[in-house]
Design brief:
- This protein is an alpha/beta fold and 233 residues long.
- The protein is 39% helix and 25% strand.
- It has ten helices and ten strands.
- The strands form two sheets. Strands 6-7-8-3-9-10 form a six-stranded mixed β-sheet, sandwiched between helices. Strands 2-1-4-5 form a four-stranded antiparallel β-sheet, covered by helices on one side.
- Helix 3 runs parallel beside helix 6.
């Protein structure tokens, strides 16, 4: 579904991403793990068109998207839930969700809203509430719901557990698994490596802008080197 081949991304003179290549197959949960500053978020921003790679290819459903506009990428079926949620704080919950549906026909929005509210009952309760007054967990649900309004076939999620209480983290990860079982392919960036590996099919480990390890998630969970370096075990 997604193939990233030899991308290099710079912030000014800083070489942030170095010859990164990886792929995500249809139906998978693939996780990118690594310390802060390893380049995980930069990779997602580059895939979604917010940053540009100087080299390589990014193929989504066999279409080259390295130079595509972000809105065109969303229309193709690739949605990005950014780090820090980035909801529209002065809008209501429902207005945020409607913003996520800008690629869809107006006649479909009511049904799509109902689908999101069914998956996130808390959002239905808060649908007229200003998004900036929601809790961190509720804002994360809203960011996920907003992305789902665009009917993605591939959903990229950046640090969904950030700043959340352990109970909410479990709830968010349960929802990610449910979305995947319902047919959405997931590319997950997550600093909580143990949680990410526990639900992923495969994973890639990043260090200072490079992929240093890849494999099946269950194998990484059992690997002493990975457990010591990334899981604190």
């Amino acid at each position: 579904m997604l193939k990233v081949k030899g991308i290099n991304v710079y912030y000014g003179n800083i070489h942030a991403i170095r010859d990164i290549s990886f792929e995500v197959a249809k139906g998978e949960i693939v996780s990118l793990i690594g310390a802060n500053g390893a380049g995980k978020s930069t990779i997602l921003k580059t895939i979604s068109g917010l940053l540009r790679s100087k080299t390589g290819e990014i193929l989504f459903l066999n279409n080259e998207i390295k130079s595509a506009a972000p809105d065109h990428i969303v229309k193709m079926g690739l949605a990005h839930v950014p780090e820090g949620r980035r909801v529209f704080l002065q809008m209501t919950v429902q207005e945020n969700l409607e913003m996520g549906a800008y690629t869809q026909k107006i006649t479909n929005i009511a049904n799509d809203l109902e689908n999101v509210y069914s998956r996130f009952p808390r959002l239905r309760e808060r649908r007229r509430q200003i998004a900036g007054t929601l809790s961190g967990g509720e804002q994360q649900m809203l960011a996920m719901g907003r992305a789902l309004m665009s009917h993605p076939t591939l959903l990229m999620m950046d640090e969904p557990s950030m700043g959340l209480a352990p109970l909410l983290v479990e709830q968010i990860f349960d929802i990610i698994v449910e979305l995947n079982k319902a047919g959405t392919t997931i590319l997950l960036v997550e600093q909580n490596a143990q949680m990410a590996l526990s639900i992923a099919n495969r994973a890639y480990v990043l260090e200072t802008g490079r992929i240093v390890m890849s494999g099946k998630a269950k194998d990484m969970l059992a690997d002493d080197k990975v457990r010591k370096a990334y899981l604190g075990m």
